[in-house]
Amino acid sequence: MSEIATTYAPLPADDLSRALAFAQLDSPTAQHIGLVGNTYTITVAGKDTNGRFCVIDMHVPPGGGPGPHRHDFEETFILLEGEVEMTFRGRSPSFGRVTRSTFRPMLLTSFTTHRQAQPG
After folding, report:
1. b/e per residue, 91-113, with b = 16+ CB within 10 A?
2. Other C-beta atoms within 10 Å of 79: how many?
3. Which of 28-42, 61-75, 96-110 has the least mean pLDDT?
4. Mean pLDDT across 57-63
5. Strands, E assignment, 64-117
6. What is the C-alpha to C-alpha distance for residues 41 and 46, in angstroms, rounded to an integer?
7. What pLDDT score was predicted for residue 113?
8. CA distance 120 to 108
9. What is the distance, to the nearest Å, from the Cα of residue 19 to the centroid of all Cα atoms in its chain?
10. 76: which strand partners?
11. SS3 content of the chain, % helix, strand, coil (to 5)
12. Domain ranges within the chain, ordered by starting residue
């Protein structure tokens, strides 16, 4: 059996100018955005992670959710409660409509057309 050696670039030094970021769940300074009947709360902003990621808490009423869209960044979905219907590239994935107990976190790649909706 032959072994394949993989070489990885060394990790850069820790950037000591960056501070630990905490989610702003119930903070009066948390940014709330009302868009198409939904409320999005930015709990960890891109400015807090050197633009690497952010965390957005989405409150979507029954029948709500954004229309089909895409963007130039990856997006991860984690369902905390309720139900969601996902559309990926114009089709519902095999799991279709899911509840919290059956949902698995998912990562959508950048530039992929998708839609998430609260059944209603």
Report:
1. eeeeeeebeeeebeebebeeeee
2. 19
3. 96-110
4. 88
5. 75-77, 83-88, 97-99, 106-108, 114-117
6. 13
7. 92
8. 24
9. 22
10. 107
11. 0, 30, 65
12. 22-59, 61-120
Q: What is the pLDDT of residue 94?
A: 60
Query: In this structure, what token pair is assigned to residue 22?
Result: 């905490």
Tell me, yes or no, if the pTM score tops 0.70: no
Instruction: Find the mean pLDDT for residues 87-94.
Output: 78
Name the phi and psi angles at 63, rounded to 5: 85, -5
Angle ∠(46,57,61) on CA atoms, nearest 5? 140
Instruction: For strands 38-44 and 114-117, give the pairing.
Output: unpaired
**Is 19 buried (19+), middle (13-18) or exposed (0-12) by CB count in 10 A?**
exposed
Q: Which amino acid is at 31?
A: Q
Query: For 1-55, what is each residue's pLDDT tens digit?
Result: 567 777 888 888 988 888 877 777 777 878 888 988 889 888 888 888 888 888 8
Q: What are the tokens at 5?
A: 């050696």
Q: Which of 108, 76, 106, 103 is nearest to 118 (CA)?
A: 103
